[in-house]
Design a protein that fits this description.
Blueprint: E1 22-28, H1 31-42, E2 51-55, H2 62-72, E3 87-92, E4 95-101, H3 109-113, H4 116-121, E5 125-129, E6 143-149, E7 155-161, H5 164-172
Parallel strand pairs: 2-5, 2-6, 4-5
Antiparallel strand pairs: 1-7, 3-4, 6-7
Length: 173
């Protein structure tokens, strides 16, 4: 797997952490570790109305984590990346899920046109890859997950909880 850096931010955002953000670090040695983390995360009750952001270069494993998380939540059928559609909706038992990929997001007017404001105003889990591209339009992430590829299988992971719900999830992991 090749990891490629992505440069260029379309929508301005701040990247500093709030003073009360909680942080945790981990190393995932294999995809099995990614799956185990996804299962632990899926068991957190706060996830039902959370906003998770996934950060990392191309090929770092963001979409792989989302696929494992959606499976752990009970999503059936094909789980495809929303790279071209920007968002893919999913249904799990008693849970609506929206998987965003803002990689190609380049016009803030798309936000309104696509109805994203309504999605974020309603209950459900929202997971965003490349969130920095739309950061000026989204709420603060409950939990930001930063994934860095060390090699083909190993990942360095940093979790930042930005809200009380995020801190509760972090404590439960």
């Amino acid at each position: 797997m090749t990891v490629a850096p992505h440069t260029g931010q379309i929508v301005e955002s701040g990247t500093s952490l709030p003073a009360d953000a909680a942080t945790r670090h981990a190393i995932w040695h294999s995809e099995a570790d990614t799956d185990a983390f996804a299962r632990q995360l899926a068991a957190q009750p706060q996830l039902a109305n959370a906003y998770l952001t996934l950060h990392g270069d191309l090929g770092a494993g963001k979409t792989t984590l989302v696929r494992h998380l959606l499976r752990a939540l009970g999503v059936q059928g094909r789980i495809k990346s929303p790279t071209y559609a920007v968002v893919e909706p999913h249904e799990a038992p008693n849970l609506s899920i929206w998987h965003f990929d803002f990689y190609r997001f380049d016009d803030p007017r798309e936000w309104e046109d696509a109805g994203f404001r309504d999605i974020f105003a309603n209950p459900g889990l929202k997971v965003a890859e490349w969130p920095e591209k739309a950061a000026a339009l989204t709420p603060s992430a409950d939990l930001a997950i930063h994934i860095e590829a060390i090699d083909d299988t190993e990942r360095k992971v940093t979790l930042h909880a930005h809200t009380p719900a995020g801190r509760a999830m972090l404590q439960g992991l």
